[in-house]
Amino acid sequence: MTSVLPGRASRAAGISQWLRPAEWQLALPMLAAFVAFFATPLLLLAAVSVFDDTQITQAGFAMWRKFLGDPFYWKVTFDTLKLGLMTVAATVLIGYPLALVYLSAGPRLQRLLLFIIVMPLLLSVVVRTFAWIVILGHEGVINYTLLSLGLVPAPLRLLHTEFGLVLSLTQIEMPLMLLPLISVMHRIDPNLRDAAAALGASKWRTLFTVILPLSLPGLVAGCLLVFASSTTAFISQQIIGGNRLVYLPLLIWQQSLVVYNWPLASVAALTLLVSVTAVIVVISALGRRGSRHLHVA
Amino acid sequence: MNTLDLNRRRMLGAMLAGGGAAMLPNVAAARGMVTAAIYPGSWEEAFRSIVSPALQKAHNVELAMQPLFAVDQIAKAKAARGAPAFDVFVLDPGPRITGINDKLFDKIDAKKMPNAAKVPQGLVDEWGVAVAAQFVGIGYNPKRVATPPKRWSDLFKEPYVSRLGLTGFQTTFGTVSIIEMAKEFGGSETDVEPFFVELKKVLPKIPAISAPAAMPGLFQQGQFDLMYTNTQTVGTLKARGVDIEFAKPETGVVAFFTTMHLARGADAENAYKYLDTVISKPVQEQLMKPPYFLAPVNRDVQLDGSLPLKSLDEMDRFVRHDWSKINPLRAGWIERFNREVAR
Predict the structure, then answer these.
(1) Model ipTM?
(2) Best interface-test mutation with B: which of A259, A261, A267 has the largest number of B CBs within 10 A?
(3) What's the CA gap between A188 and A224, in Å, rounded?
């Protein structure tokens, strides 16, 4: 039943409806900030990349040709993406079971586990990185334990190796995998597991046909965050990886801050951006395809 | 008007008043101020505890510091296009040449700094003044390396090479050390190719090739027992109980100077007072002592045992380099180093 408002009140209601912002207008401040602080600097970066000289006076594509025509830079790009993918694989293999433990724990234990998961984020990444030198070094915790137990005849070379770097990045990036995963898994109806058990499904079958499909959005989100973070983890790559593992962030830093070749640094930065975005798009697409295949709504 | 509206209006009004007050120009205090870039870490601590109080006492000028490495200062000044966020640079030789070439400095008048007369000739010029000396040689663990290496070329032989930590051309001390190693094998200040040839032969034996900032930490952890380094790092590690000594190569210790410069458009009056305070005898004496170990440039300072020389006159025998020749080549060397050492 509609009510007929008196004349003045209906005019006021009409005016206020006209003044009430449309939904898209509410996003204008964020859009302005995005344009000013993200899109504009990105365009500037692209503009700087199309200069041939370090003084940025001569336009041209010499730096792009230099970068894309050199097999060494392709190798560095590929190694950077490979590092990200290995870290994602490691965090999924270790993080998913941890998330399942969280899911089946009682409320008290869940609070404790959540604190332990979040704790690394409370420390500076530099502190965490230097701590890994103490753990992975020749006289570090791992080698000391192995030597004391007589499991190895001599200290293992863990620091400045790809294995050591992936190991440390797995710990450093683990919160980024666990938090989205736990957040999504927490919303899975526990009755579904009971129903699967009641219908005769084994625990493994329940995991692969019920829990995994429903946790896919969280898993994909975690993979995206870990991939983006580990490929750009300059400090960890430098300190734990050493100078023999050359990745794009190191090249960008050297070219921009040591030799001041900003056009080449821009080319490297844009290559990193495009290649990481491409892999993220692939991971997202795989996630969506997986959801459809597993008939998840 | 309901209570919520009143509270919201009061809050908005308070925010506006607070923001407006913050935008009002600060009431100028009677004392002046200078903003100086400073190397992070022990330099910043040293200047905060020694230079800042001395500047206040002598000239009633407050020191505000911006922790930035030399390369970052130049990058920031270049990006700011002639309007840097600080009045005084502190730079190593390589960035100093870049700053001069890119016209980032105002010229200085040494007559405005009474203490400049105490600084050895050649360390004050129209572009800046040296404020500390750095001496580069070989740091080694005396408990694990029974006989220290005598020459730079010894680092490529056993028993040294399998205990050696290397770093590349990203820093001044790394660059000058590699140049000295190259010279041993027939290279020069502008030709480091012999270094790369020798490096290739021994690369699998070298335990660590690391970022410069990580070198002291890795040495402390026993990852390697030899590294090229400066006396300041040796002094700092020794003071923390690490077993380390400084070995002087037979070809001579490398010396280079950290210099300070006026940024273009800087507040010169207070900047000169700051520069003069930094090179004054009492400040230079304190900066030399533990835990800072900054080698002085003021001739009146009595040098202590932590330095590889007894008086500043001995620096004439130390090895110096012409960075105007090195700078143009450094970009290529960095790229080459990456390619040679990458797995």
Answers:
(1) 0.81
(2) A259
(3) 21
